[in-house]
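It is worth pausing here to work through a concrete case rather than discussing structure prediction in the abstract. The textbook approach is simple: state the sequence, then state the predicted structure, then interpret. We follow exactly that order.
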Amino acid sequence: MIAQNFLGLIAAPITPMYKNGDVNYDRIQDLVQLYEKNGVSGAFVCGTTGEGTSLQLEEIKEIASAWARAGGNLKKILSVGGTCLRDMKALAAHAQTIGFEGVSMLCPFYFKPKSEEELLELVKEVSAEAPALDFYYYHIPVLSGAYFSMRKFLELADPQIPNLRGLKFTHNDLYDFYRARAFKKGKFNMLWGSDEVLLSGLVSGANGAVGSTYNYAAPLYKKVIDAFNKGEIEEARHWQDKSVEMVKLLIQYGGTGATKAFMKIIGLDCGNYRLPVLSPSAAEISELESELKKIGFFDYCSEL
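Step two, the predicted structure:
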């Protein structure tokens, strides 16, 4: 049976920061309220969008604790990833201690495993630190460099990791996605990680979706999902096209580094990204806002 904790739209939260680059823990409560008001069902904390690999271990622990204290009805997954296995294990254990519902592990990206079998040994160690939580492997090879078959990984992991519930799949290999989804008649929860082609994920059988643009445009993606569920494919394509227009501007103004600019534009200032991720200048943010008005962004963006 597919795990029921993580379905629908799951935001990949930004990590709010002050001008000096320190984490603004108090603003996390504002994110919870924003998500719940706009139909987001969960939060994938300290992932790529949340700068997990740019944060100190104690910062990640405190960020996770702040999310736990914020309450609400959001289901929370802590993303643990980096180059230190002991840190990953400590974070997984912390997620269980503070009451998160899930943990997701990113493959180490400097000294990397050389095969699915080697990857399994790493995942077993981390998942064992949070045996009561739903465990997900975070497959994003364009950043991790870990180009492994997820079908083969599930075949190996299924009998050995009792709390493995699925994958966060951020890759364009639909063949592998289909084969992983079909394993054991769809046993595992497949979380789609590419916002700009969410409709493709729905058609391919994704159960939920994790994305950065759900921070500020969740109502747009709700329209995609609602139309798809009604069988109104042309309507779903129409709204997905709006997403593509928006993501084009996101990329044009810096990609990940522009995410907090979008947050500032909708009225929730969360600071800038830490280096090496570059953030747009004030002038560029003003230009971006003008471009967003041209494409009708404010008709479907998230509301505070």
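Step three, interpretation. The chain has one domain: 8-232. The CA atoms of residues 32 and 72 lie 7 Å apart.
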